[in-house]
Design brief:
Blueprint: E1 9-13, H1 18-29, E2 33-38, H2 41-53, E3 57-62, H3 68-82, E4 87-90, H4 111-138, E5 142-147, H5 160-180, E6 185-192, H6 198-205, H7 208-215, H8 226-237, E7 248-251, H9 260-273
Parallel strand pairs: 1-2, 1-4, 2-3, 4-5, 5-6, 6-7
Helix pairs in contact: 1-2, 1-8, 3-4, 4-5
Length: about 280
Protein backbone atom coordinates (compact mmCIF):
# COMPACT_ATOMS: atom_id res chain seq x y z
CA UNK A 1 0.00 0.00 0.00
CA UNK A 2 2.91 2.34 0.75
CA UNK A 3 3.74 2.41 -2.96
CA UNK A 4 0.31 2.46 -4.60
CA UNK A 5 1.09 5.80 -6.29
CA UNK A 6 4.67 4.90 -7.12
CA UNK A 7 5.77 6.63 -10.32
CA UNK A 8 2.72 8.86 -10.47
CA UNK A 9 2.72 12.65 -10.48
CA UNK A 10 0.13 14.58 -8.47
CA UNK A 11 -0.74 18.27 -8.41
CA UNK A 12 -2.47 19.59 -5.30
CA UNK A 13 -3.85 23.11 -5.44
CA UNK A 14 -3.99 24.77 -2.07
CA UNK A 15 -1.45 22.14 -1.04
CA UNK A 16 0.29 24.11 1.70
CA UNK A 17 -2.09 23.81 4.63
CA UNK A 18 -5.34 22.21 5.77
CA UNK A 19 -6.98 19.65 3.52
CA UNK A 20 -4.55 20.34 0.68
CA UNK A 21 -1.54 20.09 2.94
CA UNK A 22 -2.64 16.77 4.40
CA UNK A 23 -3.51 15.45 0.94
CA UNK A 24 -0.09 16.38 -0.44
CA UNK A 25 1.57 14.53 2.44
CA UNK A 26 -0.68 11.48 2.07
CA UNK A 27 -0.08 11.09 -1.66
CA UNK A 28 3.66 11.59 -1.23
CA UNK A 29 3.77 9.02 1.58
CA UNK A 30 2.33 6.49 -0.86
CA UNK A 31 4.88 7.14 -3.59
CA UNK A 32 3.54 10.06 -5.64
CA UNK A 33 5.72 12.96 -6.69
CA UNK A 34 3.68 15.94 -5.54
CA UNK A 35 3.59 19.50 -6.86
CA UNK A 36 2.28 21.81 -4.14
CA UNK A 37 0.51 24.71 -5.85
CA UNK A 38 -0.37 27.48 -3.43
CA UNK A 39 -0.48 31.23 -2.98
CA UNK A 40 1.11 30.91 0.48
CA UNK A 41 4.75 30.46 -0.48
CA UNK A 42 6.27 29.95 2.96
CA UNK A 43 3.63 27.44 4.10
CA UNK A 44 4.06 25.56 0.82
CA UNK A 45 7.82 25.33 1.32
CA UNK A 46 7.28 24.20 4.91
CA UNK A 47 5.02 21.39 3.70
CA UNK A 48 7.52 20.47 1.00
CA UNK A 49 10.24 20.21 3.65
CA UNK A 50 7.98 18.08 5.81
CA UNK A 51 7.34 15.69 2.92
CA UNK A 52 11.00 15.47 2.00
CA UNK A 53 12.00 14.88 5.62
CA UNK A 54 9.71 11.84 5.56
CA UNK A 55 11.38 10.50 2.41
CA UNK A 56 8.81 11.79 -0.10
CA UNK A 57 9.21 13.85 -3.25
CA UNK A 58 7.64 17.28 -3.53
CA UNK A 59 8.10 20.61 -5.26
CA UNK A 60 6.42 23.99 -4.89
CA UNK A 61 5.00 26.48 -7.38
CA UNK A 62 3.33 29.77 -6.55
CA UNK A 63 -0.21 29.51 -7.93
CA UNK A 64 -3.20 31.82 -7.66
CA UNK A 65 -6.09 29.81 -9.09
CA UNK A 66 -7.98 33.01 -9.89
CA UNK A 67 -5.28 33.70 -12.52
CA UNK A 68 -5.65 31.59 -15.66
CA UNK A 69 -1.97 31.82 -16.59
CA UNK A 70 -0.97 30.47 -13.18
CA UNK A 71 -3.01 27.30 -13.71
CA UNK A 72 -1.47 26.66 -17.13
CA UNK A 73 2.01 27.29 -15.71
CA UNK A 74 1.30 24.92 -12.81
CA UNK A 75 0.52 21.99 -15.10
CA UNK A 76 3.44 22.78 -17.38
CA UNK A 77 5.77 22.83 -14.37
CA UNK A 78 4.71 19.34 -13.28
CA UNK A 79 5.25 17.98 -16.78
CA UNK A 80 8.64 19.67 -17.14
CA UNK A 81 9.79 18.34 -13.79
CA UNK A 82 8.52 14.80 -13.98
CA UNK A 83 7.23 14.20 -17.50
CA UNK A 84 3.59 13.45 -16.73
CA UNK A 85 0.43 14.26 -14.73
CA UNK A 86 -1.62 11.42 -13.22
CA UNK A 87 -3.54 13.06 -10.38
CA UNK A 88 -5.06 16.52 -10.07
CA UNK A 89 -6.51 17.58 -6.71
CA UNK A 90 -8.49 20.82 -7.18
CA UNK A 91 -8.73 22.06 -3.64
CA UNK A 92 -7.61 25.70 -3.53
CA UNK A 93 -9.94 28.36 -2.25
CA UNK A 94 -8.53 31.48 -0.65
CA UNK A 95 -9.95 34.34 1.36
CA UNK A 96 -8.48 37.66 0.33
CA UNK A 97 -7.25 40.00 3.07
CA UNK A 98 -8.45 37.70 5.84
CA UNK A 99 -12.11 38.55 5.14
CA UNK A 100 -14.45 36.47 3.07
CA UNK A 101 -15.72 37.83 -0.24
CA UNK A 102 -18.43 35.17 -0.44
CA UNK A 103 -20.99 36.42 2.08
CA UNK A 104 -24.21 38.07 0.99
CA UNK A 105 -27.45 37.62 -0.88
CA UNK A 106 -28.29 38.22 -4.53
CA UNK A 107 -29.19 41.72 -3.44
CA UNK A 108 -26.04 42.54 -1.47
CA UNK A 109 -23.19 40.68 -3.20
CA UNK A 110 -20.99 42.94 -5.30
CA UNK A 111 -20.60 41.90 -8.92
CA UNK A 112 -16.80 41.92 -8.62
CA UNK A 113 -17.00 39.50 -5.68
CA UNK A 114 -19.35 37.21 -7.63
CA UNK A 115 -16.89 37.16 -10.53
CA UNK A 116 -13.96 36.46 -8.21
CA UNK A 117 -15.83 33.69 -6.40
CA UNK A 118 -16.83 31.96 -9.61
CA UNK A 119 -13.27 32.23 -10.89
CA UNK A 120 -11.81 30.31 -7.94
CA UNK A 121 -14.73 27.97 -7.26
CA UNK A 122 -15.62 26.92 -10.81
CA UNK A 123 -13.50 28.44 -13.56
CA UNK A 124 -10.30 27.22 -11.88
CA UNK A 125 -11.60 23.64 -11.99
CA UNK A 126 -12.44 23.90 -15.67
CA UNK A 127 -9.01 25.32 -16.44
CA UNK A 128 -7.21 22.74 -14.31
CA UNK A 129 -8.89 19.94 -16.23
CA UNK A 130 -8.38 21.70 -19.55
CA UNK A 131 -4.61 21.76 -19.07
CA UNK A 132 -4.15 18.46 -17.22
CA UNK A 133 -6.38 16.13 -19.27
CA UNK A 134 -4.19 16.05 -22.41
CA UNK A 135 -1.25 14.85 -20.32
CA UNK A 136 -3.38 12.29 -18.48
CA UNK A 137 -4.69 11.01 -21.79
CA UNK A 138 -1.16 10.66 -23.10
CA UNK A 139 -0.24 8.65 -20.00
CA UNK A 140 -3.17 6.27 -20.35
CA UNK A 141 -5.51 7.78 -17.78
CA UNK A 142 -5.68 9.64 -14.52
CA UNK A 143 -7.77 10.88 -11.64
CA UNK A 144 -9.21 14.33 -10.94
CA UNK A 145 -10.67 15.16 -7.54
CA UNK A 146 -12.70 18.35 -7.18
CA UNK A 147 -13.36 19.67 -3.70
CA UNK A 148 -17.09 20.15 -3.25
CA UNK A 149 -18.65 20.71 0.18
CA UNK A 150 -21.57 20.01 2.43
CA UNK A 151 -22.57 23.44 1.10
CA UNK A 152 -23.10 21.81 -2.30
CA UNK A 153 -26.32 20.33 -0.88
CA UNK A 154 -27.23 22.28 2.27
CA UNK A 155 -27.48 26.04 2.11
CA UNK A 156 -26.52 28.65 4.70
CA UNK A 157 -28.13 32.07 4.74
CA UNK A 158 -26.36 34.93 2.95
CA UNK A 159 -23.75 32.71 1.29
CA UNK A 160 -24.87 33.00 -2.33
CA UNK A 161 -21.44 32.95 -3.98
CA UNK A 162 -20.02 30.00 -2.06
CA UNK A 163 -23.20 27.92 -2.19
CA UNK A 164 -23.65 28.49 -5.93
CA UNK A 165 -20.02 27.68 -6.63
CA UNK A 166 -19.91 24.51 -4.56
CA UNK A 167 -23.20 23.27 -6.03
CA UNK A 168 -21.70 23.80 -9.48
CA UNK A 169 -18.70 21.67 -8.54
CA UNK A 170 -20.96 18.62 -8.28
CA UNK A 171 -22.42 19.20 -11.74
CA UNK A 172 -19.01 19.89 -13.26
CA UNK A 173 -17.65 16.69 -11.75
CA UNK A 174 -20.44 14.62 -13.26
CA UNK A 175 -19.98 16.27 -16.64
CA UNK A 176 -16.20 15.77 -16.64
CA UNK A 177 -16.67 12.13 -15.68
CA UNK A 178 -18.85 11.64 -18.76
CA UNK A 179 -16.53 13.55 -21.06
CA UNK A 180 -13.25 11.98 -20.01
CA UNK A 181 -14.31 8.48 -19.00
CA UNK A 182 -13.47 7.04 -22.45
CA UNK A 183 -9.87 8.19 -21.84
CA UNK A 184 -9.70 6.27 -18.55
CA UNK A 185 -9.74 9.55 -16.64
CA UNK A 186 -11.91 9.32 -13.56
CA UNK A 187 -13.38 12.49 -12.06
CA UNK A 188 -14.86 12.53 -8.57
CA UNK A 189 -15.60 15.06 -5.84
CA UNK A 190 -15.24 15.13 -2.08
CA UNK A 191 -17.77 16.87 0.18
CA UNK A 192 -16.16 17.89 3.49
CA UNK A 193 -17.85 19.56 6.44
CA UNK A 194 -16.22 21.47 9.31
CA UNK A 195 -12.59 20.43 9.08
CA UNK A 196 -10.39 21.62 11.93
CA UNK A 197 -7.33 22.76 10.00
CA UNK A 198 -4.36 24.61 11.48
CA UNK A 199 -6.09 27.98 11.59
CA UNK A 200 -9.34 26.67 13.00
CA UNK A 201 -7.48 24.64 15.62
CA UNK A 202 -6.00 27.88 16.96
CA UNK A 203 -9.45 29.48 17.01
CA UNK A 204 -11.02 26.60 18.90
CA UNK A 205 -8.28 26.57 21.55
CA UNK A 206 -9.93 29.67 22.97
CA UNK A 207 -13.33 28.00 23.06
CA UNK A 208 -13.07 24.23 23.63
CA UNK A 209 -16.63 24.07 24.95
CA UNK A 210 -17.83 25.66 21.73
CA UNK A 211 -16.00 23.02 19.73
CA UNK A 212 -17.64 20.32 21.82
CA UNK A 213 -21.04 21.85 21.07
CA UNK A 214 -20.11 21.98 17.39
CA UNK A 215 -18.98 18.34 17.44
CA UNK A 216 -22.30 17.33 18.97
CA UNK A 217 -23.93 18.13 15.61
CA UNK A 218 -22.36 15.03 14.08
CA UNK A 219 -23.52 11.43 14.52
CA UNK A 220 -19.86 10.53 15.14
CA UNK A 221 -19.74 13.31 17.77
CA UNK A 222 -16.55 14.81 16.41
CA UNK A 223 -15.53 17.29 13.75
CA UNK A 224 -13.27 16.34 10.86
CA UNK A 225 -9.52 16.60 10.41
CA UNK A 226 -7.53 17.26 7.23
CA UNK A 227 -6.28 13.66 7.41
CA UNK A 228 -9.90 12.42 7.25
CA UNK A 229 -10.27 14.11 3.87
CA UNK A 230 -6.80 13.14 2.66
CA UNK A 231 -7.60 9.47 3.25
CA UNK A 232 -10.77 9.71 1.19
CA UNK A 233 -8.94 11.51 -1.60
CA UNK A 234 -6.22 8.85 -1.67
CA UNK A 235 -8.85 6.13 -1.92
CA UNK A 236 -10.61 7.78 -4.86
CA UNK A 237 -7.29 8.27 -6.65
CA UNK A 238 -6.24 4.65 -6.13
CA UNK A 239 -6.92 1.51 -8.13
CA UNK A 240 -9.30 0.45 -5.34
CA UNK A 241 -11.70 3.04 -6.79
CA UNK A 242 -11.06 2.15 -10.44
CA UNK A 243 -14.79 1.76 -11.19
CA UNK A 244 -15.90 4.93 -9.42
CA UNK A 245 -16.37 8.13 -11.40
CA UNK A 246 -18.77 11.07 -11.36
CA UNK A 247 -19.40 10.51 -7.66
CA UNK A 248 -19.44 13.05 -4.83
CA UNK A 249 -18.25 11.31 -1.67
CA UNK A 250 -19.53 13.05 1.44
CA UNK A 251 -16.88 12.86 4.16
CA UNK A 252 -19.03 14.49 6.77
CA UNK A 253 -19.21 12.41 9.95
CA UNK A 254 -22.84 11.66 9.08
CA UNK A 255 -23.95 15.29 9.27
CA UNK A 256 -26.10 15.16 6.14
CA UNK A 257 -27.96 11.93 6.97
CA UNK A 258 -29.79 13.26 10.03
CA UNK A 259 -33.46 14.17 10.32
CA UNK A 260 -33.20 17.91 10.92
CA UNK A 261 -36.06 18.09 13.43
CA UNK A 262 -34.35 15.62 15.78
CA UNK A 263 -31.00 17.25 15.18
CA UNK A 264 -32.34 20.61 16.32
CA UNK A 265 -33.80 19.10 19.47
CA UNK A 266 -30.52 17.38 20.32
CA UNK A 267 -28.59 20.64 20.04
CA UNK A 268 -31.19 22.49 22.11
CA UNK A 269 -30.94 19.83 24.83
CA UNK A 270 -27.14 20.02 24.75
CA UNK A 271 -27.20 23.79 25.20
CA UNK A 272 -29.70 23.47 28.06
CA UNK A 273 -27.51 20.89 29.82
CA UNK A 274 -24.36 22.96 29.29
CA UNK A 275 -25.52 26.52 30.00
CA UNK A 276 -22.00 27.97 30.20
CA UNK A 277 -21.07 26.89 26.72
CA UNK A 278 -19.98 29.78 24.51
CA UNK A 279 -21.76 29.01 21.28
CA UNK A 280 -19.76 29.33 18.05
CA UNK A 281 -20.76 31.75 15.31
Amino acid sequence: MAERFDGQVAIVTGGALGIGGATARRLASEGARVLIADINDQAAVDNQNRIQASGGTAAVIHTDVSVSADIARMVDDAVQRWGRVDILIQNAFSVVGGESRIHGTAESVEEADWDWGMSVLTKALYLGAKHAVPHMRKGGGGSIINLASVHSFLQEQEMLVYEAGKAAVVGMTRQMANDFGPDNIRVNAIGPVHIVSEGLAEMWKANPEGLEFFANQYPLRRTGTPDDIAGAVAFLCSSDASFITGHTLMVDGGLTVQLQEKFGLRQANYARQNPRTKLPG
